[in-house]
Amino acid sequence: MNFKSPLLGSLVAAFLLTGCEDHRIPAVQTIQVTPFASGLAGPIGLEKDAGGHIWVAEAGSGQNDGRISMLTPDGKAHPVITGFDSEVIMGGELNGLNHILFADGVLYILGAHSKLYKANVVGFKPGDTPMLAKDLPVEDMQQFILDYNFAQDTQDTHLYNMTVGPNGDLYFTDAGANALIRRTKAGVWSVFAVIPGITNPTPVGPPFVESVPTGIVFDGQKFLVSTLLGFPFPANASIIYQVDQAGAVSVYQGGFTSLVDINLTTDPGALVVQHGVFGAMGFAPNTGQIRRVANNGSSVAVDGLNLPTDLVQMDAHTYYVSGLDGNVQKVTY
């Protein structure tokens, strides 16, 4: 599953966060959203490094111009790796870079066509000559996943996001195959779990809606997986699934709309990102949200975001959120 939406302006707003369960954050807290970086080409994935810099995967414009950039505290983007595949595919959707992850001293990068790149970016300084994607080690997993005998075969694969799980293995969401894929530290790949779809709750579209798994986190005991849902992208029907270490899938919490990311936080619960509400002209502008998820339900933390794609926590009071309008915004409270 890919995302393509019109470019629109940035957002500056303040919102209320309620229902926190930890004394480190008051029950009612003012949250401010301010511009941080702009002019990015389809920012999809965000990550932070040990030095306090934000890194962004830019999907590009469809001209094989995907890149990995470092964002310095002044909001300026410094290209680190350039030349990743970026193409416009059927339906006008953009197929390019997805998410990134620092692990074991390596920057892992999910590229188009379910490719996993590995880059050593230790020592990079703003102003250094960017590396080229073609020079990076890459594991091309497209055919492996396409050849797998899924019970409901979509004949598609789109490795979208990843996390570190037990024993340091990597676990990926595949938004095309509707599955979780595992890669051991030794480099052995396998299908870990299949994420089920739902019966279409609307009169529009097919009778069955694919899950389209997006975000994934591991809390030390289980995985939590957010889902977008395929066409017609029904509201209030997306599910967060929990997956145990044996690959058994069950519902953690439902009632969400078009989720594209999930994050564990320093407070109890998690934060999820709602990409937007789907309407007659596609995902409507400024209908994105950040929602706080607790055991007893969820609530809106930030409203009115424009087509958000990812959220990363910098410290206890600072987050960054990317959007398909080319912006990264700073969220503070």
TrEMBL record:
Gene3D superfamilies: YVTN repeat-like/Quinoprotein amine dehydrogenase
InterPro entries: ScyD/ScyE-like (IPR048031), WD40/YVTN_repeat-like_dom_sf (IPR015943)
Protein's UniProt name: ScyD/ScyE family protein
Species for this entry: Salmonirosea aquatica
Taxonomic lineage of the native organism: Bacteria, Pseudomonadati, Bacteroidota, Cytophagia, Cytophagales
